[in-house]
Design brief:
Blueprint: H1 3-23, E1 25-30, H2 35-49, E2 52-57, H3 60-68, E3 74-77, H4 83-89, E4 91-106, E5 116-117, H5 119-126, H6 136-141, E6 153-157, H7 162-174, H8 176-181, E7 194-196, H9 198-208, E8 212-217, H10 218-223, E9 227-228, E10 230-232, E11 238-239, H11 243-250, E12 277-285, H12 289-305, H13 307-312, H14 320-332
Parallel strand pairs: 1-2, 1-3, 5-10, 6-7, 6-8
Antiparallel strand pairs: 3-12, 4-8, 4-9, 4-12, 10-11
Amino acid sequence: MKPILKLTLIAALLLSFAYANAAETLNGAGATFPYPVYSAWAYDYNKITGVQINYQSIGSGGGQRQVTERTVDFGASDDPLKPEQLQKDRLLQFPAVIGGVVPVLNLESVQPGQLKLDSESLCRIFLGEIKYWDDDKVKKMNPAAKLPHSEITVLYRSDGSGTTAIYTNYLNETCPAWKEKVGAGKAVKFPVGIGGKGNEGVANYVKRTANSIGYVEFAYAKQNKLNFTQLKNSAGNFVEPGFASFEDAAESGDFDPKKDFYLWLTNAPGKGSWPIAGATFILLAKEKTDVNKNVVKFFDWAFRNGDNKAKELVYVPLPKSLKDKIRAYWKEKGIY
């Protein structure tokens, strides 16, 4: 074989090898809310298929921005985009898993799950109107608790966050004062407190700060052994966060593929529903058909094989009927 031909052949082989390897990595970025379950699914998927899922938990705002700018293969957001926004940015959207946002605290005198709060008291703590743990409104709901006369330190997300979007959507829906003074969104101006980056940042701040309260996705509360509260739901019952109460909230959801599955699950009806539940969503660029097919292969695998891992991490897998709706949506968009 002539040297030039041999070099050309080697170059072609190296190029095809590079393309093959490139196809074995999918890059995603966004919500910290689902990071524990996405990383667990990605680890198992890689062992079986060799495909690497590189997911960066940078917050829902970052995920929306990066997929809109086409710098990642998929974005992830707990703050669902409305159909008109998806149309404008030429994006597709589907839910992947359901979880719960929980108030967490560092209060030495109170056992995990012992403290009861309702939406008004939670709202007024985050507005800075309830300043001490032994405030009459809190004591009335917790007559047996040893509440100290200690100033409350409020902790919140400093980055553009879907967890914040879910949390503030709940406060917006249940507390007129919050709606009037603050509002809902991925990034709002909290009247009091200290900001931490990511669910990880808020969890670490709560661990280190006596008499503090913050909010995180429940998997982070479990992993960091954080104290959490009970909350009064729309049925008037005090419920603890956990798989059963998240599942009750999830069952209330009517996800419509014609609206690109846009839906909030906060303040859901049901006797046992956790009031700050939410789905987390995947965003895809419409025109990236081949890449989207590979992303969809991963999530289809997760829908078929990842439910037990999701439950282990206290996320609620999507019901079969919703998974089937999502597969029909993928098929209609030509990516399944």
